[in-house]
Specification:
Helix 3 crosses helix 7 and helix 7 crosses helix 8. The chain is globular, with a radius of gyration of 21 Å. The protein has a domain of 198 residues: Rossmann fold (3-Layer(aba) Sandwich), CATH 3.40.50.1100. By secondary structure, the protein is α/β, with parallel strands linked by helices. Helices cover 35% and strands 15% of the residues. The longest helix is centred in the middle third of the chain and has 16 residues. It contains twelve helices and 13 strands. A six-stranded mixed β-sheet has the order 4-5-13-10-11-12, sandwiched between helices. Helix 5 links the parallel strand 7 and strand 8.
Length: 407
């Protein structure tokens, strides 16, 4: 039984029909929320009912926007591991640092969650072709799920997007276009292509369903912590769908009465100093973020100079008594290597920004060493070959004392 009640604009509140294809609000051109009949969800599903279900994002079907399980387009989106990073925590000065490793998902990043949901819903609604602007992993994820669904896909990305992301989208059959500009330039061009060529625009928060896929990060986190929540969530923030989606998940779980405590985590949006629109807006007290001109950062996935859901990110941060923080660009590679060496996790540059931010927040007392802190590793380091170390030791096998070079 489907439990979708309506679509509602997150800014002006205008209701939209949930039965047809929808993009942004027809009144103010801001994102739409999926609203559920949570009383009916609670009557139909108890949290203990989840115990026997498959370990995938689809275990939460009653809290997802599909009308039928037959519409699901899947590549095996499993529940991602959550593990305590004890050595890295000690290095930072935290008693409880946890990493939720999204790199284990199809196409190697958390983008699989959102694209699995968006393409499944597009499949259900009879969409004929899809397109997305991307600064990194979203293009590969869209390409994979579109290929799985048999949908033509178009991916527009800045010319300096990491090479693996470029080639991945092409490998998966998407028409891949490199743009002399930033992701918001790509977004404008996708909008133009949608108008002229009939694409369904799957841009971040420009359709209502990617956020519902990202929401499953929050549902999983609550279940993995036995229906309690951490004190702090560190999240790399570009378009912000993951942070917004988790905050939505926590609110829905609280309304269902599934959480053991009403206390929710402080949400910390982490950005790089070269692309920090949310941090600037947070610091100035604004509800909307001005575009950052000439945005730059090695963390390609968060190089988003302007986000259509800016107010949703800032609302979630402030409601949670969290904050937005920037970290130095120079800290990205050292934190990638440090986390990978200490914990064996292939940490992406976006999540390295979070560790640099955590170090600052511990130093100034914003985070306490006793806080339970969760870091989301949103993608695999291997997707960023340009940033990986280039220092293997070469030896001559004919050298009878080759081992001395390893001392």
């Amino acid at each position: 039984m489907p439990f979708i009640e309506k679509l509602e604009c997150a800014l002006c509140g205008l209701e939209h029909n949930a039965e047809g294809v929808q993009g942004l609000c027809q009144s103010c051109a801001r994102p739409l929320w999926v609203k559920y009949d949570l009383a009916s969800v609670g009557a139909s599903l108890k949290r203990d009912d989840l115990k026997g279900r498959p370990e995938s994002i689809w275990r939460y079907f009653e809290l997802l926007p599909l009308r039928s399980r037959e519409s699901i387009v899947s590549l095996g989106e499993g529940v991602t591991p959550l593990f305590q990073a004890k050595r890295l925590g000690r290095y930072l000065g935290l008693n409880e640092l946890w990493i939720k490793d999204e790199s284990r998902l199809p196409t190697g990043s958390f983008k699989a969650r959102g694209m699995a949901m968006a393409i499944s819903k597009a499949n259900e609604l009879g969409v004929k072709s899809v397109a997305v602007p991307t600064a990194g992993n979203a293009g590969g994820a869209l390409s994979a799920y579109a290929a799985r669904a048999g949908l033509p896909a178009h991916v527009l990305m800045p010319y300096d997007t990491p090479i693996v992301n470029q080639r991945e989208a092409s490998l998966l059959g998407a028409k891949t276009v490199l743009i002399e500009g930033l992701i918001d330039d790509c977004g404008r061009m996708v909008k133009e292509g949608a108008a002229h060529l009939g694409w369904f625009d799957v841009s971040t928060l420009k359709e209502p369903y990617r956020i519902e896929g990202k929401k499953t990060m929050g549902l999983e986190l609550a279940e993995q912590f036995d229906w309690s929540l951490p004190d702090v969530v560190l999240y790399p923030t570009g378009g912000g769908t993951g942070l917004i989606g988790m905050w939505k998940a926590f609110a829905e779980l609280n309304e269902l009465g599934w959480l053991n405590s009403a206390n929710r985590p402080r949400m910390v949006a982490c950005q790089a100093e070269g692309c920090d629109p949310i941090v600037r807006a947070f610091e100035s007290g604004a509800r909307h973020a001005a575009r950052v001109p000439n945005a730059t950062t090695q963390a390609a996935g968060i190089r988003v100079p302007a986000a259509v859901g800016d107010f949703m990110i800032l609302d979630a941060i402030r409601e949670s008594q969290g904050l937005a923080v920037r970290a130095p660009e120079k800290d990205i590679q050292p934190w990638m290597e440090r986390a990978s060496c200490l914990e064996g996790v292939s940490l992406c540059p976006e999540s390295a920004i979070c560790l640099a931010a955590a170090s600052q927040l511990l130093s100034d007392g914003t985070i306490s060493k006793s806080d339970r802190v969760v870091l989301f590793n949103t993608g695999a380091a291997q997707k960023y070959v340009e940033l990986l170390p280039k220092n293997p030791v070469r030896v001559d096998p004919s050298d009878g004392e080759w081992w001395k070079r390893l001392g």
